Amino acid sequence: MQKLHRKMIPVLAPALLLGLASAAHAMVPESIQVPAGHQVAWETVGVGEIAYECRDKPDAPGELGWVFMGPDAVLNDRAGAEVGRYYGPPATWEAADGSRVTATQLAVAPAGEGNIPYQLVQANPAMGEGAMTGVTYIQRLDTRGGVAPATACGEANKGERQIVRYQADYIFWKAG
């Protein structure tokens, strides 16, 4: 039986995120900027969890570490209403209307100590018709928490899973 641990972080109320998101968007690192010719189609706030497991690192056989297993988050609009989900693997953004996309990571940028990095992904063609139809890029901005656990990962706890809380803005772009 796997042990499951949860690390809690403070999560901001969606109403407070309006001002924070605007400030974060103004300072987007160049490496994760969306190419010209695209416009914002949808802005959401993801609030949820990321699972990590103590196991052999995929890129370093024989070396143990906390390995990212996948997210599970609710996507809220700026008013705080649930409008979709983000889960994986594979990383999937699904709107409440059933349309969904997966994507390929293009770039990441540091987001401050204790926060998962900012990210730019290129969306694959949407499955289903709806909000995700035509999405070309997704940015992850204004991240809070979500990093791998600070606790040791070794033979004694190999196979252990830990869940960490996180929050991030997900900005969906379409060709303009």
From TrEMBL:
Signal peptide limits: 1-26
A Pfam family reported for this protein in Swiss-Prot or TrEMBL: DUF3455
Signal found in the keyword field: yes
Keywords: Signal
PANTHER family to which the protein is assigned, alphabetical: CONSERVED FUNGAL PROTEIN (AFU_ORTHOLOGUE AFUA_1G14230) (PTHR35567:SF1), MALATE DEHYDROGENASE (AFU_ORTHOLOGUE AFUA_2G13800) (PTHR35567)
Protein name: DUF3455 domain-containing protein
Native species: Zobellella denitrificans
